[in-house]
Amino acid sequence: MEWLNIFVQGALLGGLYALFAIGLSLAFGIMRLVNIAHGDLIVLSAYVALMAVNATGMNPLVSIVVVVPVMFVLGYLLQRGLLNLTLSGGLLPPLLVTFGISVIIENLLLELVGADTYKLSAGSIETDSLHLGGGIAVGVYPLLVFATAALSIAGLQLLFYRTALGRAFRATSDDADTAELMGVDNRHLYAMAMAIAMIFTALAGVLMAIRTTFDPAAGPIRLIFAFEAVIIGGLGSLWGTLLGGMVLGIAQAVGAALSPTWQILAGHIAFLLILLVRPSGLFPRTRD
Amino acid sequence: MAEYRVERSTRESRGFALFLGVGLVALATLPYWGGAGDMRLVSEMAYYLALAQLWNLLAGYAGLVSVGQQAFVGLGGYTLFYLTSQFDVHPLVALALAAPLAAAFAFPMALAVFRLRGAYFAVGTWVFAETLQLAVSLITPLGAGSGMSLTPAIVRQISPDRTGREMIVYWISLGLVALVSAIVYLLLRSRHGLALTAIRDSEPASESLGVDTFRTKLMIYVVTAACTGLVGGFIFLQKLRLSPEAGFSVNDWTVVVIFMVVIGGIGTLEGPIVGMLIYFGLRELLADYGVWYLILLGVTAVAIMLKAQEGIWGLVARRFDLHLFSVRRHLTR
User: Fold this and answer.
1) A2-115+133-277 maps to CATH 1.10.12
2) How far apart, in Å, are the Cα atoms of A8 and each of A5, A256, B35, B65, B151?
């Protein structure tokens, strides 16, 4: 029973990792852009939530209505003003520009807000739990995070397959030049894709900030978790990403059960093993 | 029929080689007229230049953009500290052993991360470095999370007195940067250099002409790792103190190095030198303003990637048709 409990907690933690990963996966799926600054944008979202909470005293869960629009606009501007310029010139520009942005965000936060560690408090919901019988208890909050991840992915599937915007995304992902000939404005579409990716980045940032502590240097490890979830799940498959996040979460929970210092290491080892055995992930869809 | 011959050097490149030789000899005399602070700064510049040349070889020539080179810096450091403290190996012998050990790690690692392409390769190498850092911080004989120190008894093996030791360490740094630069230069002039240029321009085309792209890249990756391990060993021979965070620091051993190469000019041998000088110039200039120099470097690197991908040296080289390291072949009559 104890191990079953560990598996359940790990799988729920995987919901948070899937949320980390959705933005990364979207940007890659639609414009073949791997955003190295992704983790720092998650942490930036957490700081925006912190500012909203400090300014108004609202519950951090409510601050989502502030953080999401802010990050949406930032994502649009970032893609339209900067990242679009990097997409035509080979591998290095997008990689190194987002790498530069990552370092800029991290150090600006360090200079402007300081190196202190913060955590947001959402009240009793953090400690409430549901007893499922058989000695298994799940936290309400991890369950909420997991549900958010699953609903986000379901919503994205609807967007992709039921709306005109989604059709344009799929067309551009398949063949950007032909989509442009058919009247799609790729510059605007890419900016919209990044803006939508940032909705989930913002959600991930706020939900992370309630669950764990964060500081300006907390970005890279979030990028790595997101990346591990995407690769384990298989490139291009959003439901695969959720499962990838769960595999990562379970590996970490098992590691942590052996010894607290093993948590993150166990996740990395699971990732490297899957990379060796199944390099295209568990549920591959697109090939780059 | 006209006689053609292949020219491997130019007047500028021969002049520059002479200048480098004279410069190196001049720097080697620094201990006799400069202070200990000057020596530390020059040797820091030397090992950063070596790291920059290595990352440039990897990313600029072989197209392997690694964000995980700190793995080999840390491995080099730990090789030195472990062998000297546990097996009484002479520090300089242990330093030399850092290279083959880093290569031995790089080979299996390459088999995993070479399955990832482009930017995913970058993050994959980073994960590997993080894994090593976490693993090392669990191993008690390696000092676990708190790290290790080189005891006075060990460092006295290099030279019994402090001044002598500082001089030897300083000369090693010069020798190291000369060695690494020579390896990179000779590699690029060799047939592997030709293969790399072909891969850089078009991987499928070079493959169809008989270039074994996988083996070429693997070879470059392992050679770079070995040299990075050696430089890493040296860095911590100078620092005398090593912890998992310091040894496997992505900021110190990879981020800064990437900025140097990008700003100076990726894919040229002159670029890393220019970038290294700009980095140290900015760092000294903005020393009183926290991490603003890093922010400024980041902004500069982003601007260069957007506006002038060939970097500062690339602009100079194009404007004046100047190539100080001759890795090209010219056909002349």
Assistant:
1) no
2) 5, 14, 62, 37, 48
